[in-house]
Design brief:
alpha+beta; 297 residues; 6 helices
């Protein structure tokens, strides 16, 4: 049952009656005497009615998570019960490929700049001459399709050397296009070698993988795979372009939407805490910024 409060005229009438009772020599009726006491009663009764309205607003809405607003929503009694807080904004994170002379080091804290913002290198990373075994090398038209057993952490636009294929037309210096975390392609031009390739094909080059984090939080730091970031003050021997690996730079989120937090809160209040259940797994998973949907199997 909602809290009932008197309207403004009734509040004023009650206050006028109090004045007449305790100060009978004064007339608080504004319409008949525009004196000090009449104006004072009108002002005080208006202020008191405003306080009643605020009290009713609080009593009708704030004690309930479905309708609470502002700090009442984030710090109400249900906060202690659920131990949930509003998910903060988070910076985007990801991995880039750096290339150059083997042994060149990109130090931790170095800055990379792109169209979406700036990023900082999480830990020092060296360019190393390395090779990856290609477990499957096939041809579709003029495109060679290479697969690796494990994630390769390469990036679209890298120039590398393919060797070891019995069919020599697969071998050579190529520019790759990454299509998945363990697959890339390159163009064969007019060559039409037999498919699949045989022998022991591999890809070789000098590169390193650096983990980076956006300097600012929010969606703006998310970048697609293959994007080019510029290394600020690149050391001698290091290419100034860093290429974003497959999967892109992601995870950048804004502070959690108020209604999304409210939905999580209500969901949590309807769950038995301490039970290793699908419902509680969902609640815990959604405490990670950016996770908005969870399926438990």
């Amino acid at each position: 049952m909602p809290l009932e409060i008197p309207d403004r005229p009734n509040v004023k009438g009650a206050m006028q009656a109090y004045v007449r009772t305790h100060l009978p020599e004064l007339d608080p009726t504004v319409t008949t005497r525009r004196g000090f006491i009449g104006g004072l009663v009108k002002a005080l009764s208006s202020a008191l009615h405003d306080w009643y309205v605020a009290l009713k607003r609080y009593a009708d809405y704030e004690p309930f998570p479905q309708t609470a607003t502002g700090q009442f929503l984030f710090n109400g009694w249900w906060a202690d019960i659920t131990q949930l807080t509003r998910n903060p904004a988070a910076p985007a994170q990801g991995r880039v490929v750096i290339q150059g002379t083997s042994g060149t080091i990109l130090t931790a804290g170095s800055t990379l700049t792109g169209a979406r913002g700036t990023y900082t290198v999480d830990s020092s990373q060296a360019v190393v001459t390395q090779s990856l075994n290609i477990t499957s090398l096939t041809r579709s038209g003029s495109t060679a399709i290479a697969e690796t057993t494990n994630p390769h952490y390469l990036a679209t636009g890298m120039e590398l050397v393919v060797s070891g294929a019995t069919q020599g037309d697969y071998n050579g210096t190529v520019t790759i296009t990454v299509t998945s975390d363990n697959e890339f392609t390159y163009d064969l031009g007019a060559l039409t070698p037999a498919t699949p390739a045989t022998g022991s094909p591999k890809i070789t080059g000098a590169w390193g993988n650096a983990d980076i984090t956006a300097t600012e939080t929010g969606l703006g730091g998310n970048v697609d795979a293959g994007e080019v970031l510029t290394v600020g003050s690149a050391p001698v021997g290091l290419d100034s372009d860093a290429l974003v690996t497959f999967g892109g730079i992601g995870g950048g989120t804004e502070i959690e939407d108020v209604e999304d937090f409210r939905a999580r809160l209500i969901e949590a209040l309807g769950t038995d805490f301490g039970m290793f259940s699908a419902a509680e797994i969902k609640i815990v998973a959604k405490q990670i910024p950016g996770v908005t949907r969870v399926w438990v199997s």
